[in-house]
Specification:
Layout lengths: L1 H15 L9 H11 L5 H12 L8 H19 L8 E2 L2 E2 L1 H4 L2 H20 L5 H15 L4 H10 L7 H23 L4 H28 L2 H4 L6 H4 L4 H5 L1 H21 L5 H11 L4
Antiparallel strand pairs: 1-2
Helix pairs in contact: 1-4, 2-6, 3-4, 3-9, 3-15, 4-6, 7-9, 8-9, 9-10, 10-14, 14-15
C-alpha cells in the first residue's frame, strides 16, 4: 500500500509542474518553488484513492488531482503573507514571500489558482462533468467556503463559538470538494454524494483539529513550520479554548463519523481508509 501511495504521489508531483518553466521569469519561478516544497498531497490522494475504490482508473485523472493540490498551494501562499498569518516557514522551507517578495507571492498565488482551472478543464470528461466539478470546487473555495473561512479567521477576536465555522469553511470544505469531484466521475447518486459530503466535512474538521493540536504539542523539525504561534496571534486554535483532552476526543468523534458515512457507502479500500486515519492521527 505504501508503494501504491508513493507511486500516486510521484505522479501528482510530476503533473503539478507540467506547464511551468522556472526559467521563464520570476512569476513562474515562484509558482515552481511553491509547488516543489513537498507536502502531504492529501487532497489529490483522497481523490485518486476514492476513484480506485470505485474501480475507476485513477491515473487518467492525475491532472485533475493535481489541480486540487495547486488550489491548496495558492491558499497557503496567501495565508502565509504578512497581512494574513505572517509565516516565515512552510513545510520546512521559506515561504514564497520570504523567498521572493510579497508582490510576487500575491501574483504567484493568483496565477496558481487560474492554472488549477486550466488543468480541471483539460480532464478527460464530458463537458457537463467538468462544469459540475468546477461548480463544486468554486463553491468550496469561495464565499461559501475557504475564502469566507479566512475572512472569519482574520476577524477572530476570541469567540470560541465560531471556531468550528472557521475550521469547516477554511479547511473542511476543500477536502469535501475533493471527494465530491471523484463522486462526479464515479456517477454517485445524490444520496451517496450527501453521505460522502458528510464524511468529507468530518475528515476536514478532524484534520484541522489535529493541526491545532500540533501547533501546541508538535515538534517544529517534524511539522516544518513555526509552532506555538497561535496563542501569541490570538488565532482560533481549538486547543487554546477547549483544552487538549477535549480536542483529542473531538478528533476521535470526527473519525468515527467519517468511518460511519464511508461504511454506509460500502467503501472498504485499504489505501483510502489508511489516508482517512493518517489525516487525523499524525505527527506532522
Amino acid at each position: 500500500m505504501t508503494d501504491y501511495l508513493k507511486r500516486l504521489t510521484t505522479a501528482v508531483d510530476r503533473e503539478l509542474l507540467d506547464g511551468i518553466q522556472p526559467g521563464n521569469g520570476t512569476l513562474e519561478a515562484a509558482m515552481h518553488y511553491a509547488l516543489t516544497v513537498r507536502g502531504k498531497r492529501l487532497r489529490p490522494l483522497l481523490f485518486l484513492t476514492l476513484l480506485d475504490a470505485c474501480r475507476i482508473e485513477a491515473e487518467r485523472f492525475i491532472g485533475l488531482a493535481s489541480a486540487l493540490e495547486i488550489i491548496h498551494t495558492y491558499s497557503l501562499i496567501h495565508d502565509d503573507l504578512p497581512v494574513m498569518d505572517n509565516d516565515d516557514l512552510r513545510r520546512g522551507m521559506p515561504t514564497v514571500h520570504r523567498k521572493f517578495n510579497e508582490a510576487v507571492a500575491l501574483l504567484a498565488g493568483d496565477t496558481l489558482l487560474t492554472f488549477a482551472f486550466e488543468k480541471i478543464t483539460s480532464a478527460p470528461l464530458a463537458a457537463e462533468k467538468v462544469v459540475a466539478i468546477i461548480g463544486i470546487i468554486t463553491r468550496c473555495i469561495g464565499k461559501q467556503g475557504m475564502a469566507q473561512g479566512q475572512a472569519l479567521d482574520l476577524e477572530f477576536a476570541g469567540q470560541a463559538k465560531i471556531i468550528a465555522d472557521i475550521h469547516r469553511l477554511k479547511t473542511a470544505e476543500l477536502i469535501k470538494g475533493s471527494l465530491l469531484a471523484a463522486a462526479q466521475i464515479a456517477d454517485f447518486e445524490d444520496h451517496r454524494q450527501q453521505l460522502l459530503a458528510r464524511a468529507g466535512i468530518a475528515l476536514g474538521m478532524g484534520f484541522q483539529l489535529a493541526d491545532d493540536l500540533l501547533d501546541i504539542t508538535g515538534a517544529e523539525d517534524k511539522v516544518g513550520k513555526r509552532l506555538n504561534k497561535d496563542q501569541a496571534n490570538r488565532s482560533p486554535n481549538a486547543v487554546l479554548y477547549f483544552g487538549e483532552q477535549a480536542v483529542r476526543e473531538k478528533i476521535d468523534a470526527y473519525y468515527r463519523e467519517a468511518q460511519a458515512r464511508v461504511g454506509e457507502l460500502g467503501i472498504e479500500s485499504p489505501p483510502f481508509m489508511f489516508l482517512m486515519k493518517s489525516m487525523l492521527y499524525r505527527s506532522q
